[in-house]
Design goal:
The chain contains 10 helices and 20 strands. It is of the alpha+beta class. The protein has an 8-stranded antiparallel sheet with strand order 14-13-10-6-5-18-19-20. Strands 2-1-3-4-8 form a 5-stranded parallel sheet, sandwiched between helices. It has a 5-stranded antiparallel sheet with strand order 7-9-15-16-17, with helices on one face. β3, α5 and β4 form a beta-alpha-beta unit. α1 packs across α2, α4 packs parallel to α5 and α6 crosses α7. The protein is globular, with a radius of gyration of 20 Å.
Length: 366
């Protein structure tokens, strides 16, 4: 067994979910090697926890989604929710031999499934200790423009970061965000203003996502004004998008455009429900190892010198009241090599060209 599997299993069980004696944990693995499952099960038992295993396949999930009905996913959701309610912790590892596997699932079918499965997701997020991550298949290496071996090395370097050492600086950033009222972001085709007054901020240091490295909050729902250009490519529901540009008035996306003739597809997703045209999350990313986008949001939203501004559902921890079946993290990179940019808190320059100016945040500059 690759010793990095054992290291990752220890990090997930001992740090991310902090599993205790007698706790039940569901290991939900999709297109992931058996050796990783073995490493996790053994680590759970070493902590005297109780492991449960669910195995999945993206190809088989697509086949089910192609004919999704309310009856099918009501039943599926009921069964999964019963299982989830019996768990204390949850780890999901998602591999993918083809990152666009669900790109041809009709939007209506996908919406049907997501509507019912939202209950399971909500319980898992609110009631269990959880962590989700990807698995480094060659498809991901291709998206990153790397060899399979080089990408695996990058993956484990990113996932096995000493997240605990970043917590003091992350908590300092959390305090800055919670004290701020108005945010102004410029650069990269962006001129955006909004309020975060009174909103909680959450420091994410490897407990719920691996890799991790962000602090997030949410804008006051109707406060967003201006325009944003996302210079990182993105993928949502198996469909790739580039060059997304959103225009806001009173918090609502009133115009949405995308390169490559994808404007219509973009607006179809944003028309899923009313909440999809409002923002549910604003976050600053700073993972020192993750520097280039690869259409995988668990990595891209943590890119050093980036921020993401998310149409759709707000998280409970930083809840601005927005509700949606959509939660689409779109990323803007503000480092010099991506055109630069500035973020101002209450009129004062806070981050320039992807680098924080406050001395207490120096650790987050990589």
């Amino acid at each position: 067994m690759d010793p990095r599997y054992i290291q990752l299993a220890k990090q997930l069980i001992r740090y991310s979910t902090a599993l205790r004696k007698g706790e039940k944990i569901l290991l939900d693995l999709v297109d992931t090697p058996e050796d990783m499952a073995l490493a996790l099960i053994r680590e759970v038992r070493s902590r005297k926890g109780i492991p449960f295993l669910r195995l999945g396949s993206n190809r088989l999930s697509r086949e089910l989604l192609m004919g999704a009905t309310d009856e099918q996913y009501q039943t599926t959701s009921r069964h999964l929710l019963t299982e989830m309610k019996d768990m204390d912790a949850y780890i999901a590892i998602r591999g993918s031999h083809n990152i666009t596997e669900t790109s041809d699932v009709p939007a209506k079918r996908m919406g049907t499934a997501m509507k019912h499965l939202r209950k399971v997701l909500d319980h898992r997020v609110k009631k269990t200790k959880w962590c989700v991550l990807r698995w480094p298949h060659p498809a991901m290496a291709q998206q990153a423009g790397m060899s399979t071996e080089a990408f695996e090395d990058f993956y484990f370097d990113a996932c096995l970061l000493d997240y605990k050492s970043y917590l003091p600086a992350m908590n300092a950033l959390k305090r800055f965000m919670e004290r701020a009222n108005e945010v102004h972001i410029v650069g990269n085709g962006t001129d955006l203003r909004f309020s975060i007054k009174g909103m909680s901020a959450i420091a994410c240091g490897g407990q719920n996502n691996i890799p991790d490295g962000e602090v997030f909050t949410a804008p006051v729902k109707d406060s967003v004004e201006g325009v944003i250009f996302y210079n990182a490519p993105t993928i949502y529901r198996g469909i790739g998008f580039d060059g997304i540009k959103l225009t806001f008035e009173k918090g609502r996306i009133v115009k949405a455009e995308a390169d490559g003739g994808m404007t219509r597809e973009l607006n179809k997703i944003l028309d899923s429900d009313d909440g999809a045209r409002y923002i549910g999350e604003f976050a600053l990313g700073f993972h020192p190892v993750v520097r280039e986008p690869m259409r995988d949001i668990l990595f891209d939203e943590k890119i050093a010198g980036s921020f993401h501004f998310t149409p759709g559902q707000a998280y409970e921890e930083a809840d601005n009241g927005n509700r949606s079946t959509v939660h689409w993290d779109m990323v803007n990179i503000q480092r010099k090599d991506y055109g630069g940019g500035e973020i101002y808190f209450d009129g004062k320059l806070f981050r320039k060209n992807g680098r924080f100016l406050a001395k207490s945040l120096e650790k987050l500059n990589g």
